[in-house]
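Friendly challenge for the regulars: who can give me the structure tokens for this chain first? No prize, just bragging rights.
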Amino acid sequence: MTITLLKRALVTTSATAAVVLFAGGIASAHIDPDPIAMQAGTAGTVQFKVEHGCDGSPTTSMKFQIPAGVTDAAAVDKAGWTATLTGDALEFSGGPLAADAEDHFDISFTAPATPGDINFKVVQTCQAGEIAWLDIPVEGAPEPENPAPTIKVTDGPPTAADLTPAPEETEGTVVATDTGAVVVPTTAAASSDDSSNTGAIVGVVIGAVIVVVGVGMMLARRNKGTPQS
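First reply, four minutes later:
Bragging rights claimed.
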């Protein structure tokens, strides 16, 4: 009876730890362009969507690096913000934009004449801290932690497939049962703010695992030393 209860406790505690570790691996929200594709050599306006601030701090600046080959770049007026173009750097400053608010910053430009991906590297500055969205995604490789917004420049008009965002990566959530742990796929949608306390939670869970294992060892020794009738 004691061994059965111990096994159940170990399963439940281990599953809880796995849930926390999986949650900690969920990707942060990105800066997503809309549309994500446009025809080479054509002019258009792209919205760059911001989904959160810097670990709970409001956004005060969005500085975009205009990619090579892009011409006629200009900021679309945004209430409460001032746009400044210096060389290939276009900065929106002002706000602030609340840390939990979703908004967008719009840039009009003419796409390069040559098809291919263009990456708008961005530095998001907040009242406390900043996020550098500078990593260039590589096809076939895991998505980087802070990817630069990427727009596909197509030879002809973008197709529906070109304009459809890739599906979100999924993470597994482990659910404890009496007979074991089951992995249930879930969509990754947590922001960096949601994972800010993961380290502390993991510490608590690890402590619980240590306690359960210690109790199990004590019970095992006690049962071993008990005379059989």
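Confidence is low (pLDDT under 50) at residues 9-27, 169-202. The chain has two helices and 14 strands. Your move, everyone else.
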